[in-house]
Amino acid sequence: MSQITAAMVKDLREKTGAGMMDCKTALNETGGDMEAAIDWLRTKGLAKAAKKSGRVAAEGLVGVVASGTQGAVVEVNSETDFVARNENFQKMVADIASAALAVDGAIDKLLAADFPGASKSVQDYVTEQVGTIGENMNVRRAASIRVKDGVVAAYVHNQTVPGLGKIGVLVGLESTGDKAKLAELGKQIAMHIAATNPLATRREELDAAVVERERNVLIAEAKESGRPDNIIEKMVEGRIRKFYEEVVLLSQAFVMNPDVTVEKAVKDAEGVAGAPIQVVGFARFQLGEGIEKAETDFAAEVAAAAKG
Known about the structure:
Number of domains: 2
Order of helices and strands: HHHEEHHHHEEEEHHHEEHEH
CATH class of the largest domain: Alpha Beta
Distance between the termini: 35 Å
Structural class: alpha+beta
Number of helices: 12
Number of strands: 9
CATH architecture of the largest domain: 2-Layer Sandwich
Mean pLDDT: 86
Strand order of the largest sheet: 3-2-1-5
Helix content: 40-55%
Low-confidence stretches: 48-57, 294-298
Shape: flat
CATH superfamily of the largest domain: Elongation factor Ts, dimerisation domain
């Protein structure tokens, strides 16, 4: 069993909102496994949901570019926000996003691709800029959306300059309908995705392991009520349906009109666009997503330095 530290308890408390002692108990019960501790707290009704975001360590920018039936999004990290506000860094990210279009967002191909306007690869160009700017930088990830006929719409939240910001979203709409109307709908859906962060476009595309984990937590939670198995089964199925409504794009209440789902909003838009519309997929990048920040106790550092 790993040692349960105060930092682990604090981290679990921030992720779940549960009490300090409950967090400590959860970690002890699960051998220090953070994800298992979150599930344990949820089972006991001490945490409403697992908060996956955590603290973000990386600075930098998310770059998005969309052109007709294709679009690409990239995340390029830097050590400080100061560099992210540098015009040269911003231009570099925009150029890397453009390069990602040609390789369908494949990160390995992107790093090996020619950097626009330079006789070197994207990877070599970034390495060169590290030496010039004096700060570590890296192209962390890339993705692409493409449709045969229709539009790929883009949206950038907390935009620093056009096409660059903290959250970048692409959404692909397959349709032979009016392109201007499709672009308008696509922009609204992209804004919705930025706000709600869905896990999948439709139910069948949701990771089976994610659904199974949620089901197990709900079953354990329902059993705490002491109700009969047949009642527990109905409770769990009802809550799983609610889970789908929260994390599946087409099942979510549309941010622009919460009275309808995204699926219904798309269906309603078909009349205006003049043809059937299919949401083929989306990509959403949030700067630093999934990267934990190494915390330091500044006061402790100063005290230690003073002691020599």
